[in-house]
Amino acid sequence: MRTATAPFTLRRARTLDAALKILHEEPGTVPLAGCTDVYVALEFGGTPGSRYLDLTRLSALKRITTSGEKLVIGALATYTELQKSRFVRARLPMLVEAARLVGGVQIQNMGTVGGNLANGSPAGDTLPVFAVADADVVLAGPDGERRVPFNAFYTGYRKSVRRPDELIVAVEVPPVIGKQWFRKVGTRAAQAISKVVFAGVRGLETRLALGSVAPTVVRLPNTEMVLNGGGSIDEALRALADEIQPIDDLRSTAAYRRGVAANLVRQFWSATA
Amino acid sequence: MKFTLNGAPRELDAHPLKRLLDVLREDCGLTGTKEGCGEGECGACTVLVDGEPVVSCLMPCAQAEGCDVITIEGLAGNHPLQRAMMREVGAQCGICTPGVILAARGLVEAARRPTLERVREALAGNLCRCTGYEAIHRAVLSAHAELHGPSAKSAAPVPAEEAGA
């Protein structure tokens, strides 16, 4: 690793309260779960922090369960656990598909939902799913828990409303009515970070979300409005062009992303007809 | 830290943020685990932690505390998949081979015969720049046949088991 970790410290919390206390009392502490983002940063010479807090012993946060109508996914649930959970398979098959396409099996065994949210990459594979599912992010902090609508969670590129002394503890997903559809476009099927990632729901109300076409994952309210108002897919795609801001970067170009984003919305629309 | 390494209890003194990869190679002297990319893309450093394949280049060793860790040395050169890799010439330069074998071990040992699709999926995180993968896939299927007989019932295309979660 290019970054020497020897001067850094690692603490391991056994309870959520202990973890929250450490985060509150030692500002700058970086929470660790699957390490699939933090250790890549360290490999490349980055220094996400000098104090780390391992969360993997908080086994209660691994749980995937239901509460009334809601699907409750613990922040430490891995991509493998998402694929295996009967609740996720029954209620949110588009999340199973997203989890299947994150990295290879090894990364799926390590990476967590909470990490995908906290890392906040606009290319995060599960994020469009939570956007169209109108999920809530459950945050725990020194003053207790609060819920933030997923679609209000990010405030900018890799920025969220999570305070440094809060932890993402779960994602709550209300029932999703309609056909679910997910598609990731990357350089290859496994192991590649998305060039464009899409999730859509088609029911009484159509909902669309795209990743990697703006500083954060985005819902597409104008495109949705056209489709929900009975407009044609061509009219919807004109609306889409005005509500995404893709960029050129090392993985792709803005022009390619615009083309793929439109193709994905069109493909979703015909596949779920 | 204390953990079980290839079936034997092991205790050593390492910085908790040191990569499991480095602890295995430097502190334990087990150099069968290879470093490829160092960023979780290539799978060369795959080991089993509590039976599941992980990339040891992205795991702080503290997370392996109390766990059962298996490296390629733990298969003692005599696993049916190791023999099949020799038979089918599933290795050339050999850097990816330990990781490939550990990533595919679960499929070989499971009673149901994996489809080619399942083999590809299980090995999607292991890059090989020599073989073109086909010989590796043949070796996995061949090892399964050796272990369970060629007529083992075929597996569902995707794992259908339930998580304990």
Domain unit count of chain B: 2
Please write the CATH class name of the largest domain in chain B. Alpha Beta
Sheet with the most strands: spatial strand order of chain A: 4-5-10-6-7
The CATH topology of the largest domain in chain B is given as: Ubiquitin-like (UB roll)
Task: Count the DSSP helices of chain B.
Answer: 5
Query: Portion of residues in helices of chain B?
Result: 25-40%
**Mean of residue pLDDT values of chain A:** 95
State the helix count of chain A: 11
Number of domains of chain A: 3
* CATH third-level topology of the largest domain in chain A: Uridine Diphospho-n-acetylenolpyruvylglucosamine Reductase, domain 3
**N- to C-terminal distance of chain B:** 28 Å
Structure write-up:
The complex is a heterodimer of chains A (273) and B (165). Chain A folds into three domains: 9-54; 59-173, Uridine Diphospho-n-acetylenolpyruvylglucosamine Reductase, domain 3, CATH 3.30.465.10; 179-271, Enolase-like, domain 1 (2-Layer Sandwich), CATH 3.30.390.50. Chain A is α+β, with helices and mostly antiparallel strands. The longest helix of chain A is centred in the last third of the chain and has 18 residues, at 254-271. The mean pLDDT of chain A is 95. Chain A contains eleven helices and 14 strands. In chain A, strand 6 and strand 7 form a beta hairpin. Chain A has helices at 16-25, 38-43, 79-84, 86-91, 93-100, 105-110, 113-119, 127-132, 221-228, 233-243, 254-271, and strands spanning 9-12, 30-32, 51-54, 64-67, 70-74, 136-141, 144-149, 154-156, 159-160, 167-173, 179-185, 196-202, 207-211, 218-219. Chain B has 165 residues and is α+β, with helices and mostly antiparallel strands. Chain B folds into two domains: 2-74, Ubiquitin-like (UB roll); 77-148, [2Fe-2S]-binding domain (DNA polymerase, domain 1, Orthogonal Bundle), CATH 1.10.150.120. Chain B is built from five helices and five strands. Chain B has helices spanning 20-27, 80-87, 97-109, 116-122, 134-148, and strands at 2-5, 8-11, 46-49, 52-55, 68-70. Chain B has a five-stranded mixed beta sheet with strand order 2-1-5-3-4, covered by helices on one side. In chain B, a hairpin with a 2-residue loop joins strand 3 (46-49) and strand 4 (52-55). In chain B, helix 3 runs parallel beside helix 5 (134-148). The radius of gyration of chain B is 16 Å and the shape is globular.
